Amino acid sequence: MRLAQVTGRPFGEFVLLNVQSKESAGAALYLKSVREASQVEKICRKLAFRGWRFSQKKLKQSDWFDKWKEDYQIRPFGKKFIVVPQWRRQELKAGWRIPIYINPGGAFGSGEHETTRLTVRLLERAGAPFKNFFDVGTGTGILAVAAAKLGAGNIWVLDLDSASVDAAEANLRLNRGPKPKTWRRSLETLRTGRKFEFVAANLVSDVLIENRRKLAALTRPGGRLAVSGILKSNLPGFLKAFKSPHLKKLCVLKGRCWSAVLYQRLKN
Ligand SMILES: C[S@@+](CC[C@H](N)C(=O)[O-])C[C@H]1O[C@@H](n2cnc3c(N)ncnc32)[C@H](O)[C@@H]1O
């Protein structure tokens, strides 16, 4: 079982640090140098990884990129979609699922991570089409593309990583979606009076909780707010901390490790 897959920027040399337990659980970490890999290995050995096997392998840029591309396959996504890596378009067989073409580049959001997969299911549940959609922490823009394919005509995306916003724009173009309005900044520094019919925020619990008032305010009365990136073990604490008189909890989805919640903004 592989616990971690990293889709980082394929530049320069990498060192692959494999960590394997006797029970065949493991992680593959891609680091920038032997020095960095050795430091991480040392820390892991001191912490919770007693009895695990460690191995390091130097990868050239081409090895790394080819390996990562090889691993990224066409896969169903939610109930309605199928994610197609841009370079596998020719391999897509005709079917009823709606294709989402993605070139992740260095951004998060290949569609393989459970947090993204839970969010798209919440998006599908909301019963589109919604007129406008706000993708907070857009990464590759995969959720914005899904929203566009469900009929959203106006798309806003935000990410503190400018390269992710570039990727989201490129992926919307690749899917013939609308040109998105973009915010290249953190959610914390966003100042706007706009309200959206659907807000999707796949971040992490702490950031969601810290920004709960802002996320509620960004959602139009009657609109939906999907939050993801909540570890299942943190869910009870999250639900308590995220409670708001302006939000009604509609549903909670649980995956293997992660959970996601759909709220409705009340008309007050
Ligand atoms: C878990 S990824 C989600 C990507 C994509 N939306 C998906 O569902 O696969 C989180 C993204 O949010 C961005 N991000 C993290 N914290 C943020 C913050 N405080 N403000 C804005 N963007 C943030 C990261 O750069 C990253 O691209």
Q: What is the rounded distance between the termini?
A: 47 Å
Unreliable runs: 1-11
Strand percentage, roughly?
A: 25-35%
User: What is the number of E strands?
Assistant: 13
Shape: globular
- What's the domain count? 2
Task: Count up the helices.
Answer: 8
The overall average pLDDT, rounded, is 88
How would you classify the helix and strand content by structural class?
alpha/beta
Distinct compounds present: S-adenosylmethionine
What is the CATH topology of the largest domain? Rossmann fold
In the CATH scheme, the class of the largest domain would be: Alpha Beta
From the coordinates shown, what is the CATH architecture of the largest domain? Answer: 3-Layer(aba) Sandwich
Side-by-side strand order of the widest sheet: 9-8-7-10-11-13-12
Biggest sheet statistics: 7 strands, mixed
Helicity, in percent?
25-40%
Structure overview:
The protein is an alpha/beta fold and 268 residues long. The protein folds into 2 domains: 14-70; 73-265, Rossmann fold. Helix content is 29%, strand content 31%. The chain is built from 8 helices and 13 strands. The strands form 3 sheets. A 7-stranded mixed beta sheet has the order 9-8-7-10-11-13-12. Helix 3 (114-125) runs parallel beside helix 4 (142-149). The N and C termini lie far apart (47 Å). S-adenosylmethionine is lined by residues 107-109, 113, 115-116, 119, 137-139, 142-143, 158-161, 164, 186-188, 202-203, 207, 229.
